[in-house]
Amino acid sequence: MRIKKILVITFFIIFLGFLINLIAFGEEKTATSSSEKEVEILKEKIASKVAQLRQENNQAVSGKITNLSENQIEIKDKDDKKILIKLDSTLTKYYRIKNNQKKEINFSDLEKNNYIVVSGVTTDKGINANLIFVDEKYLVEFGRVIEINKENYWLKINTITNENIIVDIETYTKQLMLNIKDLQLEKTGFSKIKEGDMINFVAKDEKNESNHFSAQKIIVIPQEYFLK
Predict the structure, then answer these.
(1) Is the pTM of this model over 0.85?
(2) In angstroms, rounded to a whole number, what is the distance separating the alpha carbons of residues 148 and 166?
(3) Other C-beta atoms within 10 Å of 152: how many?
(4) What is the DSSP letter of 47?
């Protein structure tokens, strides 16, 4: 009888110990799970804040390359302001834009005087580049035709800023003229352009061998339109 009592007490103590361990394990597991949730929430908040800051500081700049090195590029924008572009061998991607097509290239394809558009995060020292696009810079102007050279197919245009620019009309130049009767744009030819006509043109912002700009597209508004 005494042995039975001892066995019962022993079993009860073992069971009680097991129950206490089980409760403690459950509490520890709950605490761990709760802690992990808090860490995940914190991570999400940090990631969200970083994304917000990146979005706020994300900008695009453009200009011609003046200096190239392995870790950075220096460009000059349209106002001749120097901008430092920081490169990352892993993150920075390079593309060339040509004929409305985008093709991925490498850093080694970049050259001095390339016109580039850079997207990235701004810093006190410049911009950390995510994307770099090598593009062609275009000149877009509006003015009055003041001289026509019918032998060499060029126009001298006095712009609204009173600058005289000579534009070559190439075989590939898209030429349109405003029909003053129905105000529709129609295809036209060089011979239809007259001195005094107003013209809007798009040209590559780089002079050709004749020291002129080569027109990609022109829209002519006949002077008669302004006499109506």
Answers:
(1) no
(2) 10
(3) 10
(4) H
In the chain, the domains with their CATH numbers are: 57-135 (2.40.50.140), 138-227 (2.40.50.320)
Number of helices followed by number of strands (H, E) in the chain? 1, 14
The pLDDT assigned to 51 comes to 56
Cβ 168 vs Cβ 212: under 8 Å: yes
Residue range 160-185: average pLDDT? 93
Distances (CA, A) of 83 to 56, 89, 156: 19, 19, 34
Percent of the chain with pLDDT over 90: 46
Query: Which segments of 72-195 are extended strands (E)?
Result: 72-76, 82-86, 93-98, 101-105, 115-123, 126-135, 138-149, 154-159, 164-168, 174-178, 185-187
For 205, residues 6+ apart whose C-beta sits below 8 A from its C-beta are 115, 136, 137, 138, 139, 213
Q: Categorize the per-residue pLDDT at 12 as very low, low, confident or very high, splitting at 50, 70 and 90.
A: very low
Identify the residue whose tokens are 């995060």: 121
Smallest CA-to-CA distance from 225 within 117, 144, 112 is with 144
Which pair of structure tokens corresponds to residue 134? 């090598």
d(CA 228, CA 225): 6
One-letter amino acid of 72 = Q
